[in-house]
From TrEMBL:
Sequence intervals crossing the membrane: 29-48, 60-78, 263-283, 295-316, 594-614, 620-639
Family as reported in the entry's similarity comment: Belongs to the cation transport ATPase (P-type) (TC 3.A.3) family. Type IB subfamily.
Xref: PANTHER family: CADMIUM/ZINC-TRANSPORTING ATPASE HMA2-RELATED, CADMIUM_ZINC-TRANSPORTING ATPASE HMA4-RELATED
Domain of life: Bacteria
Organism: Echinicola arenosa
Protein name: P-type Zn(2+) transporter
Family matches, as InterPro entries: ATPase_P-typ_cyto_dom_N, ATPase_P-typ_P_site, ATPase_P-typ_TM_dom_sf, ATPase_P-typ_transduc_dom_A_sf, ATPase_P-type_domA, Cation_Transport_ATPase_IB, HAD-like_sf, HAD_sf
E.C. designation(s): 7.2.2.12
Subcellular location: Cell membrane; Membrane
Length: 653
C-alpha cells in the first residue's frame, strides 16, 4: 500500500527508516515504554543525587549509574549506526546521536548525554505514533476490499473469495455487505453507499441493468448481479493499485529535501569538527572541553528529522485527503503540480456534459426499421454513450437486433461492421465523407449531434441526438476561474457548431470541434508552446488517452471514463463532477502550504539554535528539546490535512 512510502524515509537518509522501525517500534507496551521509564527514573535519581551532593555518589559509582541509564536506550541506536558505517553509510541520524552523546560522556557531561539519547528516543516513539496514526487514517480509506462473495453455482449459493468468481457468474449481496465485484444489477437493485469510492456521502439508487462497483455498500435490500469484470480488473482493484503506486512518483520539493539531507548531514558534521579545532588557533583562552561541548550541541540540533520525515508525510496526507474526496492522484508530483495549472483544456461529452444522449429525431421515419436495427446491432458492441441512446430507443420500440460478424471502431469517426450479411457504417460526417457517401442536408438544432447510417455503401438514415450539461458544469468553470486558471478551452470530436454553442453557454475562452484524437494532440501541443504554463487536459474517452498522456497533467473522469483514459491519466475524478477539479486544486495548495510551513519552521529553528550553540549560548538540553519539538510540530502539522473539510458549496443559477 501507499503507506510503504513512510517506511522509506529517515531523518538523515531514506535507508534508515526501516532500522528505526526495529529500534523504536517494539511489539509490546512494556518493551515500548518500559525501557524509557526505567532510564528516565535512573536519570532523575542521578540528577537529584548530584544536586544534593550525596557523598557516596562519586567516582566510578556515578559513572556506572549514568552508563546504566544510557545503554538501554542507546545500544540499539549505536549498533545500527555502526552497522551502517560498515556498509559505507556514515552520515546518518544514528551517527549524529552516537557522536554527540559519547562526546558528552568524554567531557563528563553524563546527565546531558543520557538526556539527549533519552529524549531523542522519546521523540522517535511519539513520532512513530503520529506516523502510524496517519497510516491508519489512509489505510481506512483504502482498505475497502470485500473478503467474500456469495456466488450461485449449480443452484446453490456458495461463499468464496472474490478472486475465485468467474465472468458472467451471478452473485448476491445482502444488506450491509460490500459489493465484491463489478457487475450489472439483475433485479430491482438497492440504495448504495459509494463514499469509499467517490467521496460522495449521499446514497445512490441503482436499479436493473445499471452498473455497480466493487467497494460500494448495499444499504437497503438483497439483490443479485452478473459479474462483468474479474476482481483484478475491477474499479476497486484499480483504485487500490493507483493509490499504492502513488508514492513512487515524488514531488520536486520532496526529491530536493531527500538530496539535501544527504549533503547537509556531512556538512554539519564537518562544521562541528571545525568548531572544535579552529578556535585553537584564534582564541587565546581556548578550552578544549568547552568547544567540544559547543560542537556536540551543534550536532544534536543538526539532525534533519523534521524535514525528511514530515515532508513526504505531508504529501501522503494530501493524497489521502484527495482519496477521501473522490480524487485519486497517482503521485505527489501531480499533487504538487496541480495548483500551477494556467491553461485547462476540456473534452465535452462525459466531461462537461452528462454523456447521456437522448434521441430527438429519426429520419426517415417509416415502417421499415431495418436500418435502425442494423445500426443498433453494431452500437451494441460499443461503450460510447451514443450507442446507449440508440439501444434504449430499440428497446422501447421492440426493434430486433442481430449478431455482429465483424466490427471496427474508427477513432473519432464511428463504427464499421458486418451485420446480418450487410456492411454497416454508423458515425459522423467525416466517416461518410471518407467513404464517398453523400449525406442529405437537414436543419437541426445547434446542440443536436447527428449520427449517420449507411448500408452496403448507401445512405440509409440519420439519428439526431442531444446531450445536456452536468449540474455543476457552469459553477465549475466559475470556481476554476477563481482558482487562477487563466484560459479554459473546449476540445471535442463533436460538430464545431455544437461545441461552440456549449462553450458560449459555459463562458469558455475558446472551443474547437470536429477534432480527431490527433487533432486534440496538436491543439494541446500548441497550448504547451508557452513552457512556463502548466497545461492540463480533462477527458473520459478512449480517444482522449493520447492527449491525457501529452498534457502536463492528465485528468480523467473515472465514473464514465474508459479504462484506457483512467490508466493514462495522472489524476482520476471518481464522481465525474468537473467541480472536483477545483477541489483538487484546493487540496494541492493546502498540501504545499503545509509542506513549506514545515520547511520554514525547521530551518528557522535550527538556524537559531545552531547559531546559539556555536556561540556557546545554548545547552545540549535546549538542543534536544528544539530538535524533538520541531520534528513533532512538523509531523502533527503534516497530518492535519487529513482532517480538513474541502467540500465545495456549488449552486448553479
Amino acid at each position: 500500500m501507499a503507506t510503504q512510502e513512510l517506511q522509506n524515509h529517515s531523518c538523515s537518509c531514506e535507508t534508515t527508516e526501516q532500522s528505526r522501525s526495529k529500534t523504536s517500534e517494539p511489539t509490546s507496551f512494556l518493551q515500548t515504554w518500559g525501557t524509557l521509564v526505567f532510564c528516565f527514573l535512573m536519570l532523575v535519581i542521578g540528577m537529584l543525587m548530584d544536586h544534593y551532593k550525596v557523598s557516596f555518589f562519586t567516582g566510578w559509582l556515578r559513572v556506572s549509574w549514568y552508563v546504566a541509564s544510557y545503554l538501554p536506550v542507546a545500544t540499539p541506536i549505536l549498533k545500527k549506526g555502526l552497522s551502517l558505517i560498515l556498509k559505507g553509510e556514515v552520515f546518518t541520524e544514528f551517527f549524529l546521536m552516537g557522536i554527540a552523546t559519547l562526546g558528552a560522556f568524554f567531557i563528563g557531561e553524563y546527565p546531558e548525554a543520557v538526556a539527549v539519547m533519552l529524549f531523542y528516543e522519546l521523540g522517535e516513539r511519539f513520532q512513530g505514533l503520529a506516523v502510524r496514526k496517519a497510516k491508519r487514517n489512509i489505510k481506512s480509506l483504502l482498505d475497502i476490499r470485500p473478503e467474500i462473495a456469495s456466488v450461485n453455482r449449480n443452484g446453490e449459493w456458495k461463499t468464496v473469495h472474490p478472486e475465485e468468481v468467474l465472468l458472467d457468474e451471478v452473485i448476491q449481496v445482502r444488506p450491509g455487505e460490500k459489493v465484491p465485484l463489478d457487475g450489472i444489477v439483475l433485479d430491482e437493485g438497492s440504495r448504495f453507499d459509494t463514499s469509499a469510492l467517490t467521496g460522495e456521502s449521499k446514497p445512490k439508487k441503482l436499479g436493473k441493468g445499471e452498473d455497480v462497483l466493487a467497494g460500494m455498500v448495499n444499504l437497503e435490500k438483497l439483490f443479485t448481479l452478473i459479474v462483468h469484470k474479474k476482481y483484478s480488473e475491477s474499479s476497486l482493484s484499480k483504485i487500490l493499485e493507483m493509490v499504492s503506486t502513488a508514492s513512487s512518483r515524488k514531488a520536486q520539493t520532496e526529491q530536493f529535501i531527500r538530496k539535501f539531507a544527504k549533503v547537509y548531514t556531512p556538512i554539519v558534521t564537518y562544521l562541528a569538527l571545525a568548531l572544535v579545532i579552529l578556535p585553537y588557533f584564534f582564541v587565546s583562552n581556548y578550552v578544549f572541553s568547552d568547544w567540544l561541548y559547543r560542537a556536540l550541541v551543534f550536532l544534536v540540533i543538526s539532525c534533519p528529522c523534521a524535514l525528511v520525515v514530515s515532508i513526504p508525510l505531508g504529501y501522503f496526507g494530501g493524497i489521502g485527503a484527495a482519496s477521501k474526496n473522490g480524487i485519486l492522484f497517482k503521485g505527489s508530483n501531480f499533487l504538487d503540480r496541480m495548483e500551477n495549472i494556467q491553461t485547462l483544456a476540456m473534452d465535452k461529452t462525459g466531461t462537461l456534459t452528462k454523456g447521456v444522449f437522448k434521441i430527438q429525431e429519426i429520419s426517415p421515419e417509416s415502417a421499415n426499421t431495418e436500418w435502425i436495427s442494423l445500426a443498433a446491432s453494431l452500437e451494441k458492441q460499443s461503450t460510447h454513450p451514443v450507442g446507449k441512446a440508440i439501444l434504449e430507443y430499440t428497446d422501447e420500440h421492440s426493434i430486433e437486433t442481430f449478431p455482429v460478424n465483424e466490427m471496427e471502431e474508427i477513432s473519432g469517426k464511428g463504427l464499421r461492421g458486418k451485420v446480418n450479411g450487410k456492411e454497416v457504417l454508423v458515425g459522423n460526417s467525416k466517416l461518410f465523407t471518407g467513404n464517398q457517401i453523400t449525406i442529405p442536408k437537414q436543419t437541426t438544432s445547434s446542440k443536436t449531434s447527428t449520427i449517420y447510417v449507411a448500408i452496403d455503401g448507401q445512405y440509409a438514415g440519420q439519428i439526431n441526438i442531444a446531450d445536456s450539461l452536468k449540474e455543476d458544469a457552469k459553477s465549475s468553470i466559475q470556481l476554476l476561474r477563481r482558482k487562477g486558471i487563466s484560459e479554459i478551452v473546449m476540445l471535442s470530436g463533436d460538430k464545431s457548431d455544437v461545441t461552440i454553442e456549449y462553450a458560449k453557454e459555459l463562458g469558455l475562452d475558446k472551443a474547437y470541434g470536429d477534432l480527431l484524437p490527433q487533432d486534440k494532440v496538436k491543439q494541446v501541443e500548441l497550448l504547451k508552446k508557452n513552457e512556463k504554463h502548466t497545461v492540463a487536459f480533462v477527458g473520459d474517452g478512449i480517444n482522449d488517452a493520447p492527449v491525457l498522456a501529452l498534457a502536463d497533467i492528465g485528468i480523467a473522469m473515472g465514473g464514465l471514463g474508459s479504462d484506457l483514459a483512467i490508466g493514462t491519466a495522472d489524476v482520476v475524478i471518481q464522481t465525474d463532477q468537473p467541480s472536483k477539479i477545483a477541489q483538487a486544486i484546493d487540496i494541492s495548495k493546502k498540501t504545499k502550504s503545509i509542506v513549506w510551513q514545515n520547511i520554514g519552521l525547521a530551518f528557522l529553528t535550527k538556524l537559531i539554535v545552531l547559531s546559539l550553540g556555536a556561540l556557546g549560548m545554548a545547552t545540549m538540553w535546549a538542543a534536544v528539546f528544539a530538535d524533538v519539538g520541531v520534528a513533532m510540530l512538523a509531523i502533527l502539522n503534516a497530518i492535519r490535512i487529513q482532517h480538513m473539510d474541502f467540500s465545495l458549496k456549488i449552486v448553479d443559477k
